[in-house]
Amino acid sequence: MDNEQKKIDDLTNIAKIILENTMLKIDIEGQNKINEELLEKIELKQNKYNEIFIENGKLRVQIEIIKDEVKATNVEEVLSIIRKLKDTLKDSDFHKKQYETLVREVDYVYVNQFDKLLWGDNYPSLKVFFDYLQKMNCLNINWSHFTNLMNYGNTEVINLNTGVLSKQDLGYLFYTIKPFFLSEFNNTVKRYIAIIKRKFLLNGKVLDDNFLTKRICGYKKSDIPTNLKLEEINQIALDIAKRHH
After folding, report:
1. How close are the terminal C-alpha atoms of the chain, in Å?
2. How far apart (Å, rounded) are the C-alpha atoms in residues 188 and 192?
3. Structural domain tally of the chain?
4. Are residues 137 and 235 in the same domain?
5. Burial 133-165, CB ≥16 within 10 A → b, else e
6. In which domain, by residue range, is 213 found?
7. Is residue 151 domain-shared with residue 204, that is, in the same domain?
8. For 186, which of 58, 134, 142, 181 could close a Cys bridge (C-beta 3.0–4.6 Å)?
9. What is the mean pLDDT of the chain?
10. What confidence tier does 76 reach under pLDDT thresholds 50, 70, 90?
11. Measured distance CA(140)–CA(201) in Å, rounded
């Protein structure tokens, strides 16, 4: 009887051990799964942290560069400058929109159907002249305004800016476009000088007689400056001639 009971007890103990081991295995597997999920989340967080760390590093480098460029002494000054720049850019954007609106309004300035431009009814050739002046940053007005100012009866002046073209370049340009003006203006040097002086300013100033006389009367080979845009201006004159009638 004791032997039988002992066998039962032994089997019971074995069953308990098996059950405990099974439960432990289940717990371990479950915990492993939980651990894997946690590790995955930790890895994602770590990757995100690394990305932020890298971006912060880039930002710090940019701030240091800006700091050097603007001669700021600390990060706070840099950030303050950036904020001011942002505000300035907002203002600039506002003024840009205002300017674009103004340009659209100016572009609709009424233009006469010119029977008589200062060089006759020759829009195509005048457009070649205008495009060149605009390309060389000599003008601050648009095509409609320019043609209106070139009307025979318009007494307003056209301001030309030097920079890309020098004063000497513009003098030679006036010399080459003389044939395209109406005969009443180009039949004598004196009359041509008078119309150029009346119609054009250079950097907001009246052209002086000495300059006009020297440049518009003609050029001798020995008198042509070496830095003059000679070929370019001659080509423009040729392009104007092709469109002139």
Report:
1. 138
2. 6
3. 2
4. yes
5. beebebbebebebbbbbbbeebeeebebbeeeb
6. 123-243
7. yes
8. 181
9. 74
10. low
11. 13
Q: Which of 50, 79, 105 is the last residue of a domain?
A: 105
Q: How far is CA 204 from CA 107, 113, 168, 207, in A?
A: 22, 28, 16, 9
User: Distances in Å between the alpha carbon of 219 and those of 113, 170, 215, 222, 224?
Assistant: 36, 13, 7, 8, 6
> Contact, 193 vs 216, CB < 8 A?
yes
- Predicted local confidence at residue 210, as pLDDT: 82
C-alpha 237/C-alpha 171 separation (Å) is 13
Using 50, 70 and 90 to split pLDDT, how confident is the model at 105? Answer: very low
Does 73 share its domain with 36? yes
Q: What angle do CA 228, 230, 232 make, to 5 degrees?
A: 115
Helix axes 2-70, 75-106, angle to 10 degrees: 60
Whole-angstrom distance, CA of residue 124 vs CA of residue 116: 14
Gap between the Cα atoms of 32 and 46, Å rounded = 20
Grade residue 189 by pLDDT with cuts at 50, 70 and 90. confident
Question: Quick one: which of 144, 146, 157 has its CA closest to 110?
Answer: 144
Residue 48 tokens, joined: 């995100």
pTM, rounded to two decimals: 0.53
In a domain, 110, yes or no: no
Judging by DSSP bridges, how do beta strands 200-202 and 205-206 pair with one another? antiparallel
Q: What is the C-alpha separation between 59 and 103, in angstroms, rounded?
A: 39
Output the CA–CA distances (angstroms, integers) from residue 237 to 56, 180, 203, 230, 233, in the order listed. 59, 9, 23, 11, 6
Are 154 and 213 in a shared domain?
A: yes
In 3D space, the residue among 73, 147, 67 whose CA is nearest the CA of residue 112 turns out to be: 147
Contact call for residues 123 and 159 (beta carbons, < 8 A): no
